[in-house]
Give the backbone structure.
Amino acid sequence: MRKKILILFIVLPLVSMAQMLPYKNPKLSPQERADDLLQRMTTEEKIAQLQCIWTEHKRKLFTNEKFDEKKAAECFKDGLGFMSRPNENLFPRRSVYHPALHPRQSAELYNQIQRYFVEKTRLGIPLVAHDEGVHGHLSQDATNFPVPIALACTWDEELLQDIFAITAKEIRSRGGSEELGPVLDMVRDPRWGRTEEMMGEDPYLISRLGRAAVTGAQGKGEYLDPEHVGITLKHFGVHGSSEGGNNTAPSYIDEHEARQSFFSPFREVIRDCDPMYIMITYNEIWGRPAHANKHLLQDILRNEFKFKGTIVADYGGISNLHSVDKMSPTLADAAVQAINAGVDVEFPNPDTYPTLELSLKEGKVTMATIDRAVRNVLISKFRLGLFERPYVDVKKAETVSGCEAHSQVAYRAAAESMVLLKNDNNFLPLEKNKVKSIALIGPNANRCILGGYSGIPRDTITPLRAIHEKYGDQMNILYSEGVRITDEHSPFPPIIKAYTYQDNARKIQDAVEVAKKADIVILFVGGNEGTSREAYGPEAPGDLPTLELLAGQKELIDQIVALGKPTCAFVNSGTTLSLGELESKVPAVMQCWYLGQEGGYAMIDALFGDINPSGKLSISFPRSAGHIPAYYNYKPTSRRGYNLGFDVTPLHSFGYGLSYTTYTYSNLRIDKSVMGENETATVTVDVQNTGSRDGSEIIQMYITDDYASLTRPVKELKGFRRINLKAGEKQTVTFKIDKDALAYYDIDNKWQVEPGTFTVAVGPSSDKNEKVKLEIK
């Protein structure tokens, strides 16, 4: 009897495995499972996988604000591919920064919705829930980090990996399995409202930080574990160099420059990290919108760059072909153009792709094209482990989101993101034991500015709160807002009003009276989430024609400085501002961007020297909007100079940033002056902290192709190292130069190295370095 039981114990699982449908077998590859599932699907089920729901379409699943399985069966009997933002509160009681549910609520709701698709549809295909995550999870109680333009100023790959690992963990804990981010676009016009979402102007820096972000969020390996997400690189095309800095405007970058610069981060990250998704840009390129650009999506992205994942539309990008771009007379035609060009999935709502069934019957789309897109979607779902682990632990969601360990990383990020632009006579840091009375003046002194794509963290720290917590019992702390910049401190309202000097005249006078009572004045000026933001529609502009300080801030600064008291400035902004006038009037200026939830602590710690600033600019600071473009890696015929003595150089160059200590560079050498195409050369430099404080320095290597068959930039970043140096310590830093560091796209768009001489420059910024020569035989 025991033998029979033992035999049954062994045989039954084997029988069960034998009867398991191949697509449900986790021992097979995602590709094999997708192929099996695809051939079992009806046309209706296939097309459903290419659709997503958001806002009003998600509300169709509810009755009296409760998930209704019967409604789901009526609306989505054939299944569904994607759902946008599972954490979103679709029935908010009041206006909030972002209407989101608390972690446990969103996890419970996700489980309810997912259970219908897994257990009640014919094939049990789970849906993918995607969430925003460019600098933390866009949700309630999630950890909020500095905006990407600030994070890039850390030049810290380890930090970026940690941040995106945390973001992925928080997103996954609530049911999200696809993260929209990181953004790999390169920005060349800081008037653009989305500048804060970018990681700067240099393709090499963005590539390095992008690889770190993808590794942190997605991990490594074919199948992802429950704490990682499928990342979505944004926004493939030429997104950050639109006409006039206007969001979604055409790009007039030619194909060679697009490949050489704007596509480079995508190419590198695709090669090294196998990203699961790519979102394409709204902008047109070479006369066709990206959503209908077969050459861009298939010839370049698929065939040349070897992207194997899923291509998703930016929100409304396909319907824009009809309503905005005027390329498609109907929404059905827009769907045909998009899927034939290579767009697999329509985000965020099923505005056009439901028409594919009729277009298929009419012969405008082939089943092979539909199958290609569906197969890409299915592979991603298998890689995410959704068939094996479709649900989440609701208790874990509460403990993970915004926890103390994650907040500590947010503080570290804020500390490393600040860039010290000016510090005459070592005005900063202040000696905390000598300060008796201090005034915090300005529109951002008592605000924690989170930036766009931010939820509501568990806590937000303003500079005023931070200084009261840390020093309220040892110095007299005064405060005045000085000016109010806009009527809304949010990127969401369609129309935002800017205040004027006349609106703020009384506030400025009040601030002057407060400043008179203080020994030292700290100005907190700049912008906010409402001044420069994503222009998300014609009815909601977000770009600016100016980089000037607005709303009477200049008058505020003038009147405070006129008091003759020791004064410095901390600048919060999502883009570069015209700071030359400010810098001429105060001895110290700190560029702080939007530093996230811990920003107040970081700024006050930098003020008093508990933080030694180490950030370096990831974007050049033009002197004014009239000095755009100002990026450092320009062509030799650019920047000839302006008439009447106007300075053509940027106010601060790419890679620039001061410290409370000093560093010296010496003994730059190269191990060979001549090398073959397939050899490597080693460049070495000694760097010493010659000051009295410990600090971190970012050593940068630039290469110039002295003569080439096509015009080349005057210099290009090709290496960097972030090192920690104690006071007096010296380190030797090395860089490897291989053919990739010297190659470029030739006239036939072939990636190659030409023989000739190259200038290798190493130093603390793009405009301050020592040089050696290298010849390629």
About this structure: Residues 5-18 have pLDDT under 50 and may be disordered. DSSP finds 24 helices and 27 strands in the chain. The longest strand covers residues 695-705.
